[in-house]
Specification:
Strand content: 25-35%
Helix content: 25-40%
CATH topology of the largest domain: Spore Coat Polysaccharide Biosynthesis Protein SpsA, Chain A
Strand order of the largest sheet: 2-1-3-12-5-13-10
Largest sheet: 7 strands, mixed
CATH superfamily of the largest domain: Spore Coat Polysaccharide Biosynthesis Protein SpsA, Chain A
Number of strands: 16
Shape: elongated
Distance between the termini: 53 Å
Structural class: alpha+beta
Radius of gyration: 25 Å
Length: 274
Amino acid sequence: MTDPISKNINDVTKEYEKTFAICSLVTNFQQYEDMLASFEKNGFMNGQCEFMHIDNSADNQYDAYTGLHKMIHACDSKYVILCHQDIKLLDHDFAHLVALLDELETVDPKWAVAGNAGGFGFDRIRTCISDPYGFTGPQPDLPIKIDSLDENFIILKASAQVSPSQDLKGFHFYGLDLCMQAKSRGYNAYVIGFLLHHYGSGTRDKIFYECLHAVEDKHRKLLKPRWATTTTTQIRLTSSWTGLRVSRVIRLGYYVWKHIRYVLKTAGKRISGS
């Protein structure tokens, strides 16, 4: 019988074939070709990039959550860029983006998601973007940690293995979802100073609000206070510090009660056996 081959993970280093994978859902190939031309002009056609797309021009074969998930897992690049077809790179090029991500890695090795526009707290936004609403160049407080990212341009660190939820659907809020996925795994999300132009202005229609409510419902269920039992203990999942302290007292009391019951049961067996 041949012994199984086991690799010592300390001796294994992941070598990525490319630096960037640029992934897009395409409904308009003229816009997509213009986007590719701007990437080529800014040094991304240098053998260090792979480009992937899903053809949604006839109908939506995939939504953002399923389509981007599929492309992310087909990539072999150090970073995965998820971007809209209607963006155009300006003066910031391949070398500039690599430098920004190297800087971010130094600032916070636990980053997993980055982009050019996002928000945090209640109604606090940071952007580095040109779009129909105006122009905001790189600001001195960038990179800045945020809670959500605009979907026009998102960068994933492949080694963090963050991917969109598969219990959501549509074309909205996957930037927030990716940031939430990262945070749940101990990573962080940032806005960085990579400037480009986004031609889209976004729409708030019936579908937008359906997606909004779906995201809120998902996290309402996830954040619902509850007990989770493992094979060794009981864990209280709650955002309330008071509720957590009360739960710890309850758990301690449960342990004490189990111990007393065990002692009494053992003592009873000894008495009956004697």
